[in-house]
Amino acid sequence: MKNNGRFDRTFANRMNELVRLYRGPHEGSNLFTCLLGLLLVPGEEAWSRVPEEPLSILHRWGINRRSIRKIGTCPCGNEHPRTLRHLVEILRNAITERRFDLLHANGTLTGLEFKDASGFHAVFKTADLRRLVEKLSEHVGGSRARGDTGDTDFVASWQREPFHRRSCKWVRRIRRRNRLGVATRREAIRAGHRPCKTCRP
Questions:
Q1: Each residue of 142-186: pLDDT tens digit?
Q2: In whole angstroms, what is the distance from residue 52 CA to residue 71 CA?
């Protein structure tokens, strides 16, 4: 099945909402389900939005760098690239090949441990899983975090289709928690938004 950009965006945003809104006894299970969905459902084009940045910036994602115990090696013997995008690729493969274990205590999911034949080994505690799912959904959805418009040229809403120039009067009417920044006009349209009829971005 070939996914279109709009479906990927909608799906990723729904996973983000599930993670951000749910707090309760089944939080770990919810995080695991959302991570599975994010790693398996979106198409290849969506994953090209994950930055080719070094793993050393994991702390900017709110993830403990010590979560990655070993990066592993390629069949040729070289070490896997230490980039975020390649990490996601390894995690996707590990999920599809069932090379992970659920970590739990007293009947509660506390994290995930990934291992594969290449020597890759990672342990994500619940807090790291939460941040990982949030960040992945933001990149796969092609949008920044809710409420974070940063220095982007355009602003959209999680709840409505139009996107606007930052100076547009309609931006002030979007609740801050529903705002999202979009870097380019093309990205906004590809994510399923349509240009505002007032500011004509």
A1: 554 444 445 567 888 866 788 899 889 998 888 776 777 777 788
A2: 15
Same domain, residue pair 100 and 170: no
Cα–Cα dist 147/162, whole Å:
16
CA 23, CA 20: separation in Å to the nearest integer?
Answer: 8
Show the 3-state SS of 143-195.
CCCCCCCCCCCEEEECCCCEEEECCCHHHHHCCHHHEEEECCHHHHHHCCCEE
Give yes or no: residues 125 and 160 share one domain: no
> What are 109's strand-pairing partners?
104
Which residue has better confidence, 29 or 4?
29
Range of the domain at 46: 5-140
116 or 180, which is more confident: 116
- Domain for residue 79, yes or no? yes
114 pLDDT above the threshold of 80: yes
According to DSSP, residue 24 is labeled S
Both 16 and 65 in one domain: the answer is: yes
- As a whole number of angstroms, the distance between CA 141 and CA 102 comes to 27
